[in-house]
Amino acid sequence: MSEPSTSQRYHLILADIAMAAAIQTCGGAVETEDRADYEPGALRDRWLMRHPEGLLRRRVASMANAGVASLQQLPPERLEETAKRFGVPIDGETAAAIAEHFVAKREAWLEYNR
Hints:
Number of strands: 0
Oligomer: single chain
Shape: globular
Radius of gyration: 14 Å
Order of helices and strands: HHHHHH
Helix content: over 70%
């Protein structure tokens, strides 16, 4: 598998944060092995592989999908804080880059639609 682009990497990180938040909200837990050797997208993929079907999986996936859109709106400090709260290891520099990426995407979309 090829390396994800920067944009894909940012989306995968947000998907992991949203997934961890949704799992916790739905009464589940992210296991230590889900966090091992963290790579963007791994937390989400590992949890989904351990839960191939069922109500919990559907609830968590739906909530996480909605959560990604909310995470795209956060300023860097809140994004870093949220990631740490749910055990996704990103630093302030990465949080700032992710936030800037999504601000630029929103601005480009708004500019295009004028």
